[in-house]
Amino acid sequence: MRTTHRTLDLDLALPLNARVAHSHGVLVWLRNRVTALRNRLSANSLTDLDDRLLNDVGLSRSDVNKALKETGIADDPSQQLARLARRRAELALRGRRAD
After folding, report:
1. Residue bearing the bigger pLDDT, 27 or 72
2. Contact indicator for 59, 84 with CB cutoff of 8 Å
3. Where do the YjiS-like domain residues begin and end (predicted)?
């Protein structure tokens, strides 16, 4: 048998199910990055609001600036901002001021 007729079976190609799973994982990761970027742009737009409007949603200007500085450029600061707003709302219901 000639060497040109020989093929090596190294199982380098992934089975179809593994390729689909890998593609799905990449798409999920990409969707998460797009969502994080969209949320970061929305959080950046919060800096355009005046202090009264920020107070209405339960945030302060320092909260927004701190959340934007602490998270990376590709990270989502909205979870941190939502947590801060929820905490301020809970304290307001108890009659206490948030620091």
Report:
1. 27
2. yes
3. 38-64
